[in-house]
Design goal:
The chain has about 130 residues and is an alpha+beta fold. It has helices at about 5-20, 25-40, 45-75, and strands at about 85-90, 95-100, 105-110, 120-125, 130-134.
Length: about 130
């Protein structure tokens, strides 16, 4: 079997696996394998094919990492809840339940100085627990 067929089989396998993961990394490697397959089809040697696959794979990986970093900081949905007020339902010793967006949430005081008699606001989230303060 010729080299370009092997590269294209690898490319289709990687892209097929990508459809099950959704991370985009296997898609990058699939594109890199397809480019190496084109290089093999054009008659370039094995070293050139490997360099092309490595260069495209590395460039794609770096681009995805940069994109993921910007998406993680810009798209953190928990930050949208910070600063919103909550309605106190039960409270004892700095822990209790609050009503927010029509649902009951477990809540903890951000510090011992939190006064449950004053309005409470979301300061942070720890899993599904709201950290509240005045």
């Amino acid at each position: 079997m010729s080299a370009h067929i092997l590269w294209w089989i690898a490319a289709f396998a990687l892209v097929g696996l990508e459809l099950t993961t959704g991370t985009f990394y296997l898609l990058v490697y699939g594109v890199a394998a397809a480019a190496a397959g084109i290089a093999a089809w054009l008659g370039l040697g094995l070293v050139a094919q490997l360099v092309i696959a490595a260069a495209i794979g590395l460039a794609g990986t770096l681009a995805l990492k940069k994109w993921r970093r910007t998406e993680a900081t810009a798209g953190d949905l928990q930050d949208l809840d910070i600063g919103h007020s909550v309605t106190l339902e039960t409270w004892q010793n700095g822990k209790g339940q609050v009503k927010y967006r029509g649902a009951l949430w477990d809540a903890e005081a951000e510090s011992p100085a939190v006064d449950a008699g004053r309005p409470l606001y979301i300061r942070a989230m720890r899993g599904s627990v709201l950290i509240v303060g005045n």
